Amino acid sequence: MRNDNGFIGVDNEYKPILNRHIAVSGEWKEQQFKFVGKNGYWRMIYTEDPIYYDEEFYISHLQGYTLERENQLDIYGDKLTQSLYPFPRVGGYWELSRNFSDIFENFINGSGVGGLIGGAFDNLVGFRPTNSGDYFQLPENINSGLNALGLIGASGTNNFVLSTWFFPNVGYTNQKLPLFSYGNTNTGLEIYIEGTTLHYTTFNNNVANMQTLTIPNLTIGKWHKLVIVRTLGNLNKIYLSTDSNSTPLLNGASITITTPSVAAPLPIRIGADIDLVSNNLFAYRNVYGLGNASISNTNINRLLYREQPVVVLKEKTTATESIVPQEWISLFTDKKISITIPPDFQYGQYDLFIRNSEGKESFKFPVLIKAIELKEEPFFDDFSDPMTLSKNYYLLNRAWGGANGGVVPENISVANGELIIKANGDNYTGNIVGVDKDGNKKFHTHANDPKLGLPWKNRVGGCLVFNKKTGFGSYELDVKIPNVLGVCSAMWTFFYNEIYPTDPRYNHFLNSDYSEIYHNVARFSFNNQTLPLQYNSSNGNASISINEPSSTSRVNGVGDLNINSVNDGAMRYSGSSLNPFTLNNLAYQISSDSPFTIGFWLKVESEAYTPGRVNGLVRLGSGVNSVGVDLVYVGSNATPSLRFAWRTSTNTMLTTDANFGLNLGNWEYVTMTYDGVNDIKCYLNGVLKQTLSKPTGVFTPQNTWQIFNRNTITGTANVTNRTMSIDELIISDTQFTAGQINSLISEPGTFVTFNDNGEGMHQQGTLEDGFYTTRNHEIDIEIPSHLDGGVLAQPSLENIKCNTWRGETQNWDVNIGDGKYWEEYRDNLTPAGVNFGDGAYHKLRFDWYPDKVEFYVDDVLVQTNTNTQAGKTIPDIPGAFTFGMWFPSAPKPEEPWLVNKTKAWAGGIVDTQTDSMIADFDTVEMRVKSFKFNPFIEELANQRILAETYPFGGYRINKNY
Predict the structure, then answer these.
(1) CA 8 from chain center: how many Å?
(2) Helix spans in 353-414 (H)
(3) How does pLDDT run across 587-604, given as a tens digit for each residue?
(4) CA 115 to CA 109: how far, in whole Å?
(5) Could you tell me which residues are beta bridge partners of residue 368?
(6) % of the chain at pLDDT higher than 70
(7) Cα gap 878→876, rounded to integer Å
(8) How far is CA 292 from CA 90, 149, 921, in A?
(9) Given a cut of 60, is residue 556 above it in pLDDT?
(10) Pairing relation of β-strands 561-564 and 570-575?
(11) What pLDDT shows up at residue 621?
């Protein structure tokens, strides 16, 4: 039988198929199957349900259907969010969950002014100001249509819609909460909440016209959804909703407000009033604007209630449904949903589908969730089997690394007992076309490119991937490298995670040096022999004073306060004077509505003490309005214990007095953190000991810190003859995680080293484009290379790169020898001892152990990489072994189809006409006689068996379909 309507995906195109039936479980079933896959890798699957493309939403295909836990799965379809957002998708919608982009893609990015911080509030991610004067601004371009001129019109009478969700943090009472504003008191508008009243004020020639409405249900710690609609020149609809309860503050009856004309495209601000004052007690998300148009009741409800469709995995045997939690959904757009399979999902066969808020379900796709499989036996391939490519390897079909055409399967073949990998340079004129990062055929697209519209055929390589994951062991290629510059010949293992702030794993990944994560960190090191002490801060300066009767300046051994090399170079206090050490005027203030961290090393020595008395250690403020850590002596033996205390003008909070394992004569690391909302966490030596709630009452921001203060926050003071030491005091306006605290403790130069249970990664990206971090466990041999002190773009075939990675960043701001230097990868540039352009075969090998990687050329050890105090760089997660040739081609900034001649680390020849680096050849070949893998059986138990974020990576099974 023929089926003229049946198609199969081949090479990103649909090809007709002839057979109408497919074999399923030993029976021929009538055709009910669709395609799954991207990047030219297609599979046919049997399904019970057809796809109806005229449905209000549907899934068309998945990126793959065999997955491991913690793999990312991309789900493709259409109208997936149509029930979620206003439809049609007019106006602009800024979710503010990851970045500042308009998810409708009608407008350019908005912008963050000042110090906005993203975070999770009541299980939803939003942005909040960190200081007064911080706000989010809609696009201000004159043609954007969402500035004041485009929104309300030059005469000020256009219809418009403004909407946002806002979150009142714990601590909000009657402060002013700005929602929307534009302009100034001459021409402007502001909408804000104060107490339980909504204020809508317009300004015209310095005359304010204000209307107010009472808010009946403003709930602390919940998201509120506000929609303001103006029609016919009047404000006649204001809705406020908390969760699923809508309160129409004003509905139908109009109120007349004199609206000024707008002669200029004044930007619209979210979270700031006319005077550009903001309030960091509030967070914002889901900003919507629509100018010179009306809005339906259905769309108003979508702005107020917005219930997101859910991704369902239904187990085939038991019919048990599992909903993918929101925190494991990284992207939800009209045409694509990206989910991560949660780590607690059970293995098995599932049907995957989408269910919207009305209970309607999409077409169902089969998904298999399985355990990770590793190759734990030796493997040898001499390429004598012509079918080895289809049996043992994937062929890469994707691009990375800049102005190139990626790597394609067409450049890989087996002939006469050899693997042949080709690379097409800048002189290539054949028919092979390169691909983009998604594996699609690549074309020249830049408007100024002389080849605009033509297929991209130059700088196209080939790579293949062993189709079994491998870990600790020995990897060897017997290979002949082409005698040219401009292309990289390489072998590497690869494991990759890309994690965003909404991901539950994010904070665990970001366990790294505080100075690179937080923009406000003051650090005081007491390792000089005289005062004033060393002070490091990334934001501003502090004044330091010593308040002691005997002297205004302390030197070693004088008075109660001294810094003694015998005492580990710390500040030691032995006495009873009042306020011996004070820090004034830090560049930022700590208050009850902003997060902070206090951390320091403490050593309490054997001393005379009085039971029941309290010593001040580190505190902000004095008396009422103070917060910090005290030392208290409890019980009949007067054992020293810690007391984490917070005192407002009306209330005092303190912990249960407990020893927490504090030992006399030992250095202990003490930390107090606050999330800016409610939770106070108390740590000793990086271990969370207690979580407390912030006390009620007013706390006035303070800016004076006192160390070794006889006056304390709580309890009876005046303890005499106390002897103790403090070192490495840090004060930050960010709440550190437990992992980040441990990274401080583990920092070189401190007195105790603790195990770092986090990943040690660092934050990448920007506030506007979105933050993320990467875990990239990789080992490379790359040819050619320059050497340290040489020129990057002038490499030699006599040198190799011996790389080990756990992440993608380094501290480029300081030299490697600097104590503040850190690294996530190590790129050792190494003489090979041979010239790879000599036309001979050479053995390239690396041996991967848990604590080191040894690199060999022709069985001679040329380099050993190890973990160092600057950071862990030795991978411990199995990955995919890959080898082949590709083109490192950093683009020229203004001509991105050309290669930057100063950053082309694979070298080449500078083209005098274009002033760019070119790979001056047609086609060259890498020839491989053999590939050998020997696992280190005794080390396999030390591997971490984890899944990649992107498991599909542009792989093809083979090059023929």
Answers:
(1) 37
(2) 388-392
(3) 556 777 778 888 888 888
(4) 17
(5) 66, 349
(6) 76
(7) 7
(8) 11, 10, 58
(9) no
(10) antiparallel
(11) 75
Q: What beta strand segments (E) does 382-461 contain? A: 393-396, 412-415, 418-424
DSSP three-state, residue 735: coil
What is the C-alpha to C-alpha distance for residues 406 and 420, in angstroms, rounded to an integer?
17
Closest CA to 603 of 728, 688, 473: 728
- End-to-end Cα spacing for the chain: 22
Sort strands 197-204 and 207-214 into parallel, antiparallel or unpaired.
Answer: antiparallel
Closest to 570 measured CA to CA, from 610, 531, 522, 615: 531
**Amino acid letter for position 543:** S
In 3D space, the residue among 341, 306, 337, 314 whose CA is nearest the CA of residue 325 turns out to be 341
Tokens, residue 160: 């418009």
Token pair, residue 391, equals: 């049996």
Biggest CA pair distance of the chain? 104
Residues 6+ apart with CB under 8 A from 177: 166, 168, 192, 193, 194, 279, 281, 282
Burial class (CB in 10 A: 0-12, 13-18, 19+), 750: middle
d(Cα 656, Cα 805) in Å, to the nearest integer? 45
Within 8 A by CB and 6+ apart from 297, the residues are none
Express the helix, strand and coil content of the chain in percent, nearest 5 each.
5, 45, 50
DSSP class of residue 890? P
Band of residue 243 on the pLDDT scale cut at 50, 70, 90: low
**Token pair listed for 915:** 């002033």
Percentage of the chain exceeding pLDDT 90: 37
Amino acid letter for position 519? H
Amino acid letter for position 477: L
Q: Who contacts 344 (Cβ-Cβ below 8 Å, separation ≥6)?
A: 69
Distance separating alpha carbons of residues 70 and 371, to the nearest angstrom: 11
What φ, ψ does residue 430 adopt, rounded to 5°?
Answer: -80, -160
Which residues, including other chains, have CB under 8 Å from residue 26's CB and lie 6 or more apart? none
Q: CA 199 → CA 142, 249, 277, 289, 912, distances in Å?
A: 28, 12, 15, 19, 65
Check residue 940 and report its DSSP letter: G
**Single-letter amino acid code for the residue at 146:** L
Q: Could you report the per-residue pLDDT of 919-943, keeping only the tens digit for each?
A: 999 999 999 999 999 999 999 999 9
Q: 909-911 and 916-918: which strand pairing?
A: antiparallel
Give CA–CA dist 619/708, Å, rounded: 9
The amino acid at 91: G
Question: At 199, which amino acid appears?
Answer: H
Mean of the per-residue pLDDT values of the chain: 80
3-state secondary structure of 215: coil
**Rounded-to-integer distance, Cα 768 and Cα 755, Å:** 34
Q: Taking Cα atoms as reference points, which of 31, 63, 15 lies closest to residue 950? A: 63
